[in-house]
Each structure stands twice: as structure tokens, then as C-alpha cells.
Amino acid sequence: MTITRQDIEAKANEIASAVNQTTESARDTAVAAGVVIALLVLAAFIFGRRRGSRNRTLVEVYRV
User: Fold this and answer.
1) What's the rounded Cα separation, in Å, for the pair 2 and 56?
2) C-alpha 20: how far from its chain's center?
3) CA geometry: angle at 23 spanning 21 and 25, to 5°?
4) pLDDT in tens, the chain (64 residues)
5) What residue spans define the domains of the chain?
6) Cα Rg, the chain, nearest whole Å
7) Exposed (0-12), middle (13-18) or buried (19+): which is 11, by Cβ within 10 Å?
């Protein structure tokens, strides 16, 4: 059995396409995770700000 140049090129192209598909899939997953994290941080900020304004303690200091 002999291995020709075409066999090597075909296998290299197959590996390259598998790597490209994996890279695109990982990139899509990372973008989706980033969006979800950003939304969670934004929601925590908004709800924390709202709760902080409702339960704010007002202290007045008078000099005698």
C-alpha cells in the first residue's frame, strides 16, 4: 500500500475543517456565555440600586 500526496492533502484538509468547526462552535459558546454574564451583572446592579434606594438610612448631624 502506497500513500500518495493526494491522500496526505485530503487528510490534512479533513483535519483543518474539523478544527475550524470546533473553533466556530467554541466562539459561539463563548459569545453566548458573555452575553448571559453581562445580563446577570446588569440585573444585579439594577436590583441592588433599587433596593438600596428603598432601604436608605438618613442620618442628620447637627452641630451645637
Assistant:
1) 81
2) 19
3) 70
4) 788 999 999 999 999 999 999 998 899 899 999 999 999 999 999 888 766 666 667 788 888 7
5) 1-64
6) 29
7) exposed
Match 441592588 to its residue by C-alpha cell. 48
The x, y and z cell numbers of residue 52, run together, are: 438600596
User: b/e per residue, 27-48, with b = 16+ CB within 10 A?
Assistant: eeeeeeeeeeeeeeeeeeeeee
Residue given cell 445580563 in the structure block: 39
Q: Which three cell numbers stand for residue 39?
A: 445580563
C-alpha cell at 38: 453581562
